[in-house]
Amino acid sequence: MALISIEDLAELEDEHLDDVTDNSEPMEDNEEERLYAHWQAVASTHQVSVPREMIGPIQEMTRRNQAGSNHEEVPSVTLSRREKLGESVYEERIYPPGKWACITRAEKLYEQSISMGFMKLMRYICKENSTGSYLGMTLPIVTEIQMLEDRNGFLKEVVTAYYLPAALQDEPPEPADPDIHIVHRDTLRVFTRGFRGTTTEETIMNQVNQLWELLEDTEGLRRDTYMVAVYENPGVSCRRNEIWFIRREQ
Asked: Among 6, 80, 165, 212, which residue's Cβ finds the most Cβ atoms within 10 Å?
């Protein structure tokens, strides 16, 4: 589960909500269990279990989603774009300095690491912070991966990062979870290519290889570290993602 986002809960079909209304149990309790079961179903496909303490954050994000809360995009400037037949092949972008809430996990599978990491970040976003308030969602959620020395796979440690909304950049709320750290990241310049589908170690490696073929001998790009940006929830079979190649500082 590369990302559990607030759109997951919007995926619930209308008939599920009708079932809640018709059930003799109290609506609030029954709806809570159905939302939780939905998340468990999504998570189980990636060998992840959702702890019951996630019920509160799930409800909070569901409420925000139903109220039409907007998602703030991580700020960036497109420097150049290569197109083919009117479609973007890849772009070069620059992301200004900013503060991110980051967590590192090292589970058996890549998908498990970023799933567990994001659930912790979600609790931080949903009131488990020094302000006790909902912080707001930003997109994309970005994961940073390190290559093995032989470049045939990734290290287990995966960093999952959430960009603090603009209003909180100067004074980021402190996380209640000691595993989450507020990190200032300098200007980031990347080559990025979009792709659709799941984000497993295998699919990401394929995307890395494909972008290297396109960029060929472009100088100044790191080969030890890559980033994966995820814009949509894992329940969408053809969801939007990007692979980011990092340009070294000149």
From this structure: 6
